[in-house]
Amino acid sequence: MITRRKKECFDDDPFWRELYPFIFPEKRFAAAAAQIGKVLKLTKPKGKAVLDLCCGPGRWAIPLAQKGFSVTGVDRTKFLLNVAKTKAKASKVKIEWVRADMRDFLRPESFDLVLSTLTSFGYFDRSQGSNRRRGVTN
Predict the structure, then answer these.
(1) 19-22: long-range contacts (C-beta < 8 A, 24 or more apart)?
(2) CATH number for the domain that contains residue 97
């Protein structure tokens, strides 16, 4: 079932286009590529299936795919997903890109590692939907 949600500030593609160079400078991509080894060392995933939740322009998804992981990147923002697809193609990696709100994306028991970086959870001012169906408890 797809939930219809009202348009929110982070759905505004012109906003992301304008602020993209400031939020995602190339040095952040280089840093993520260098830091992904540390992330893997800390998390020690048992398998190769990774979900990059609220993946934005693929800053973490791409280096994970370059390391041989099967990556799914989920984001609600069309502009950022288009950037991610372009960067992944230039990096010659295959990633499943899904345009969806993280509150609605469900694929139980499908991933060995889930990453959600930056402030994606901070966008929500109140609880939305049922976390119980995802197995999340407070």
Answers:
(1) 20/57, 20/79, 20/80, 20/83
(2) 3.40.50.150
On whether residue 129 sits in a domain, the answer given is no
Is a pLDDT exceeding 90 seen at residue 65? yes
Whether 25 has a pLDDT exceeding 70, the answer reads yes
**73: phi then psi, degrees, rounded to nearest 5:** -110, 125
Does the reported pTM lie above 0.90? no
